[in-house]
Specification:
Blueprint lengths: L2 H11 L2 H12 L4 H15 L17 H5 L16 E3 L4 E8 L5 E4 L2 E4 H5 L2 H5 L5 E6 L7 E3 L4 E9 L8 H6 L9 E8 L3 E8 L7 E3 L15 E4 L4 E2 L4 E5 L4 E6 L4 E3 L6 E2 L4 E5 L1
Antiparallel strand pairs: 1-17, 2-5, 2-16, 3-4, 5-14, 6-13, 7-8, 7-11, 7-12, 8-9, 9-14, 10-13, 15-17
Length: 281
């Protein structure tokens, strides 16, 4: 049994409320012994590599959250500056990519997801028909900040409540519409070349917290049952700037409007923050 299969098995046999409660208590504990044990478990089980981190000494990290939200030596993540390149917002694996169908669907592991459910708005979803999508899966070992894939203006953002099911390749096979069931935060960044890029951040099992960098009051908390949309004026973000962070590894879905663009990566490829994902022709 693989580590991912083990996590999925545990998630299936235990009540979700119990998993969430126990995981939160452990991961967010201020008890020094709990933090030390949780940090060691995450570090060794996930094979966290600190080579590219600013702080390379494992013992200088206070707890598991410090590992997830470690600062990178950004010289190891050069940002593609060209205006016609959309960059990876994360360190991740490309789980899926393709075109959004005429009926507004994206395909992930054989399942069809309505974009309207993913962003929780039919009108928003219609704007992406004929466009492109890419699913980026973060693992526990990965750096957990999400950066802006383009330079532009954040016009609006949406917090969508939902479940906290495990977002693993095996789970994507097993649970239809998983990505639109979990809690998520959508940020729309309007760019002169790629148009309005939707950056959909999907919460993971148990801890599930997503915090935004551009609005300290916009975050998921696992308790609210109401969708919340915020609009902004003149909120500029540069390509490569921090947008948000995950408390536990999860998934980012990029939605792009129809245009003359082509992907520069393939499904199954590991990508790093700052490298090219799409080129505008």
């Amino acid at each position: 049994m693989t580590k991912n299969s083990l996590w999925l098995f545990i998630a299936e046999i235990m009540p979700k409320s119990v998993i969430s409660y126990v995981t939160k208590r452990i991961m967010l504990s201020e008890n020094k012994y709990v933090k030390k044990a949780a940090k060691a478990f995450i570090f060794h089980m996930s094979k966290v590599d600190l080579t590219d981190a600013k702080e390379k000494n494992y013992h200088n990290y206070d707890g598991p959250m410090d590992l997830f939200l470690r600062d990178l030596d950004m010289s190891t993540r050069p940002i593609e500056k060209s205006d016609n390149i959309l960059i990876s917002p994360v360190d991740a694996k490309v789980a899926e990519l393709g075109e959004i169908t005429e009926t507004g669907l994206i395909g992930v592991k054989g399942n069809q997801y309505p974009v309207s459910e993913l962003v929780d708005c039919e009108a928003n979803a219609r704007e992406y028909i004929g466009g492109s999508y890419m699913v980026l899966w973060l693992q526990l070992k990965d750096y957990h900040f999400i950066h802006s894939p383009v330079t532009g203006d954040i016009r609006y953002a949406r917090v969508i409540p939902g479940a906290l099911l495990p977002v693993l390749p095996e789970a994507l096979d097993k649970y239809p519409n998983l990505l639109s069931k979990n809690e998520r935060v959508v940020t729309w960044v309007n760019n002169n070349v790629f148009g309005e890029v939707a950056v959909v951040k999907v919460g993971a099992a148990s801890v599930g917290s997503i915090d935004t960098e551009y609005d300290p009051d916009l975050r998921t908390d696992g308790n609210s049952k109401l969708t919340r949309t915020e609009t902004y004026d003149n909120l500029r973000v540069e390509k490569g700037a921090k947008l948000a962070n995950f408390r536990l590894g999860s998934t980012v879905v990029l939605l792009l409007k129809e245009g003359k663009i082509k992907p520069s990566v393939s499904v199954g490829e590991d990508v790093l923050l700052g490298q090219s994902l799409y080129i505008s022709e």
